[in-house]
């Protein structure tokens, strides 16, 4: 897949999860990392291993803006230098014992990159909107492939069944024009002619529907954008999927709604519960699908295994797979198609 970890920024967690003097641990592309925030608010990231006896630094403490190993109390600064070895007068501070990992905060998230390049391109920016927005964040995990998670997020045709009543109903379809176009490092689908969706979320948080857009940008960014008939943004759901390993992903989402008379904390409380229901439904079908496919792959010599059969309803999946395939530089053509969604 065209997802070079070492040259990209990957979000690990919303910023507010990491308070001053706190420590969080993650596994990113199989590598255990520890992120800690100093008492002055600065974030640092190191591999989650003390070089002395390999204890996880994430089980330690933040002391004097440094991280202390839980085993023998060695302390390390943000550069990976050992500044203190209890019982010794001369710690090995002159040498970097742990190679630090690039980290930054943007758009309400903490990001990391394994690249040694100090001039990396910034991470994909979510749609911030022309009007004032109320924003909240979500964080979760799912066991599936990156491409399957991205397609699921941007696919409208599963919503009638997996999210029946919440987003759409199977017996209340509309004929909509879908325009698929290539963009820089990604693809967009514009849906024209769709009125409000029949599900609860649309009826609660949209007054009318002008255009909706689904977009993907390499390597891991997917976004849904909903505008009213006047062109004003009503809702934007921006999501980044970060691989933990080959079969598990971190999910980090930014949900923004247009500011109105409803207090932000009320919308956040209601929307967060609703979106968690939707997320849990997607996680369930993705994980069940992946488990089922793996069972059949074990019998590939006995059973013909057809995968990724596409129809005209599969708008974005083929584009995603092309973009994520590092062995295929060709892009699929722009197109327009009438769909019943």
Describe the structure.
By secondary structure, the protein is of the alpha+beta class. The chain is 18% helix and 33% strand. It has helices at 146-154, 159-162, 200-205, 264-297, 317-324; strands at residues 10-14, 23-28, 31-37, 43-47, 61-63, 66-68, 75-76, 82-84, 102-106, 109-113, 133-142, 175-183, 186-192, 211-217, 221-227, 233-243, 249-258, 335-340. The strands form 4 sheets. Strands 11-17-16-15-14-13-12-18 form an 8-stranded antiparallel beta sheet, with helices on one face. Strand 15 and strand 16 (233-243) form a beta hairpin. Helix 1 packs antiparallel against helix 5. The longest helix is centred in the last third of the chain and has 34 residues, at 264-297. It is globular, with a radius of gyration of 23 Å. The protein starts with 9 loop residues before the first strand and ends with a strand. The mean pLDDT is 92.
Task: Considering the chains and any ligands shown, give keywords for the structure.
341 residues, alpha+beta, 8-stranded antiparallel sheet, 4-stranded antiparallel sheet, 33% strand, globular
Please provide a brief summary of the model.
Helix content is 18%, strand content 33%. The chain has helices at 146-154, 159-162, 200-205, 264-297, 317-324; strands spanning 10-14, 23-28, 31-37, 43-47, 61-63, 66-68, 75-76, 82-84, 102-106, 109-113, 133-142, 175-183, 186-192, 211-217, 221-227, 233-243, 249-258, 335-340.
Compile the SSE list and pairings.
Blueprint: E1 10-14, E2 23-28, E3 31-37, E4 43-47, E5 61-63, E6 66-68, E7 75-76, E8 82-84, E9 102-106, E10 109-113, E11 133-142, H1 146-154, H2 159-162, E12 175-183, E13 186-192, H3 200-205, E14 211-217, E15 221-227, E16 233-243, E17 249-258, H4 264-297, H5 317-324, E18 335-340
Antiparallel strand pairs: 1-10, 2-3, 3-4, 5-6, 6-7, 7-8, 9-10, 11-17, 12-13, 12-18, 13-14, 14-15, 15-16, 16-17
Helix pairs in contact: 1-5
